[in-house]
Amino acid sequence: MTTVPTEPTAAAAGANATAHFTSKNPYEAVKDVPPERVDRLAKRVLSAIHDTIREEKVTYDEYNALKAWLIQVGEDGEWPLFLDVWVEHVVEEVATEHREGSKGTIEGPYYVPDAPECAENGVGTIPMRDDEQGTRLTWTGTVTATDGTPLENAKVELWHADNDGFYSQFEPSQPQWNLRGTFSVGEGGRFEITTIQPAPYQIPTDGSCGKLIAAAGWHAWRPAHLHVKVSAPGHELLTAQLYFPGDEHNDDDIASAVKPELILDPKSAGDGTATVDYGFVLDPVTG
Asked: How far is C-alpha 263 from the chain's CA centre?
């Protein structure tokens, strides 16, 4: 019997993340950005780099090490990982600062669109293996507009790592859509989703991002979390991660993505399962 490897390499995960990202045609959304905007942003970034070199007296050896490392990030396919871990949380903060509804946070590099529909009348179970490990979690909630109106045409996309901290489609042992699903809400905007509580995990450390972490003396941990995208016609898409209380890395998440409003309050059912109630408020599209 052939043994399927259970631990993904950074190169394999990075290549998958890069392929998924580039398939979205990311240039399309900014094809009409005027040259003046590109000029301003490029100069600001370069100026920040120049200032760092001058202020920190960067040597040629350090510069060449940086150049080699940047090349290696690309060869490892880890640019999505690097940017999503250390940069995206600030982009998300700026992009959503106008919102009155629920708080969001970063998407991360492991989202895959078009997960199968799993709900009937708002109730469903995420695809999982028969022997899926982890605490079974029943999650209920409501999707409403900022004026309190239930959004009965809303959808909740859910994806998360398994009990070993791995994502399907980014490591080889899991079925394609394991722990990934789309849930259409029911009457009154209600939903009830059965899944498992994921585990904390380290981002891949066997590639170039791991070299940075080791050189800087950082840790590589992310707290356990559920990823969601919540959408409804006429309303802004909400992307968020939901965290669990008591995780030691809620306060020092390497991706700086944890917000107090996103921490769940699960209740033990006394039989090895848990329940949690957490809903979403979506902002209307304006302009």
From this structure: 15
